[in-house]
Design a protein that fits this description.
Length: about 200
Amino acid sequence: MKVYAERPNRLLRQLLADLAAIAVAGLAVWLALTVRDTVLALRAPGDRLVDAGTALRGTFDTAADKASHVPLVGGSLADALHTGSDAGIRISDAGWQQISAVEDLAFWLTVVLIVVPVLFLVLTWLPLRVHYTRQATGAVRLRALGEHGHDLLALRALSTQPFTRLAGVGPVGDGWRSADPAAVRVLAGLELRRLGLREV
């Protein structure tokens, strides 16, 4: 499998593109985790509400237990104090709801901030790299076959090279039709050069 070009200019461009893709993915993960930590810091008020509600409930429950031992009015007093305990439960529930909302927001922001750049890379950079690898691998195999492979590379050059480039190498079309080795070599070289590979 031929992943990278053999010619320095094309190889350098490929390496820079790959490094840029890795940098984009790494930056996306770093940014997502930084945003996640920042958003999770917003759960502190919810934690305080939970603590306050729990403390309030404990205070009212303790008071209600002690009030239940008061003669004559103990039961009524305990029931009234348990109402305060219910308020503590509602405060704790509000805190948990805020914590849950903040955690959900942090999770989805993290997902979006990672998935969008990675999806962009998968839809743009990755297909180009796969396409190049397939073409270069095929071209290297044809180059290794000798004359028969060179013929196919020359044919490919006739169909992919711009007319201006073909016109610049002389009457190669006639030479290719008559299986002139020099013309075939020139055309095969054009195709290999297009892919950043060494010529035959």
